[in-house]
Amino acid sequence: MKNILNITGHDLLLPNILKTEGCYIYDDKGKKYLDLESGVWCTSIGHNHERFRNIISKQLNGITHAGFCYSSEIVDLAAENVLSITGMHNGKCVFLCSGSEAIELARQIAKVLAGKSISMTLHDSYLGSYSSVVNRGDGWFRLDWKQCQKCPKSETCDIDCPLIRDIPDNISEFLFEPGSAGGFVRFPPKAMIENIVGIVRNYGGKIIINEVTTGIGRTGKWFGYNYYNIQPDMVAIGKGIGNGYPVSVTSMSESIVSELSKTDYHYSQSHQNDPLGAAIANEVLNIIKEEKLLAKAMENGEFLKNELEKIVDGKMITEVRGRGMMWAIDIPDEKICKEVYLKLLEKGIIVSFRRRALRIDPPLIIAQPDIEDFIQKLKAIIMTFHR
């Protein structure tokens, strides 16, 4: 692949994939790989799903792209579907192309409506690839919650805790990523998040949830924020809702829509509310509902948890964390972690290498025999380091 500029920071280890099916991909040498990374955590219903192919074909025979002044019924149907799972009845949606863009739109709207200057997030949040969220210097308040993990009051979260008490009153939005934590799968305490949300709301700030990674069933529920007793103002959705096709959504509550209607804010992007992306998103949601993939992700997540916890030895593997179909395996020795990653690849298992952790994010359709195959191969690799 001599003409491709790879600036992802990841080695291009499988440069020529010819075929995909379900949880599997096949290279040009005919080797089969179990994809426990779901591409870039995107293929929620698996590669090459028949209904996914069919909806693309059907929409290609209708309209794929619309201008700003006309649309298609499928976009409204898809928006209704998204609003039903976010609980934002009477709200509105904007369909876009990437999770980064969905987050950016939500942030712009929050700043216009709140009339405040400071964005707030947790220190280990990944908020997209745009410089506006990568460069978190002036204009950001970052709450470092590492010490919360050792706090004896983390389950109740004292409102007088310095971390909470120091939140400034000029927060325009609290942008919360509920569980990916820079790729290391850490879940902030429920009480802490609920206190932050209450404080920011009291100050007039907006609550945006970044569900690009944790949404669309990844945690065993529709969204990561469903584990917290909060209702957001806006939700940024991406990755799994397109099953590999580049579509994202910014979902807004009724109150946000009402406030926005009183401003002159405009946002124009060439592929905003495209019928093809909306049709795909709508079908992915329908498949997840009809195939009961949330329950499947939850059930298989418990099975995977039980199997992974058996290999924690406190030395080579120090911890496993996760919910549903989103897991991290901590291997503090980065050299060993990469060796395990590469040995799994040799054995036809694709996981995500995060330097001192491996991430497991299979398609929601994965079956227990595939999980068992992964566990057995992982155990065999670990044994080679104990000899």
Task: Explain the overall architecture.
This protein is about 35% helix and about 15% strand. The protein has about 375 residues and is of the alpha/beta class. The chain folds into two domains: about 50-290, Aspartate Aminotransferase, domain 2 (3-Layer(aba) Sandwich); about 295-330 and about 340-355 and about 375-380, no CATH class. The strands form three sheets. The chain has a seven-stranded mixed sheet, with helices on both faces. α2 (about 50-60) packs antiparallel against α9 (about 275-290), α3 (about 75-85) packs across α9 and α10 packs parallel to α12. The model has no long low-confidence stretch (mean pLDDT about 95).
Major sheet size, sense and barrel closure: 7 strands, mixed
Distance between the termini: 39 Å
Corresponding CATH architecture of the largest domain: 3-Layer(aba) Sandwich
What general outline do the C-alpha atoms trace? globular
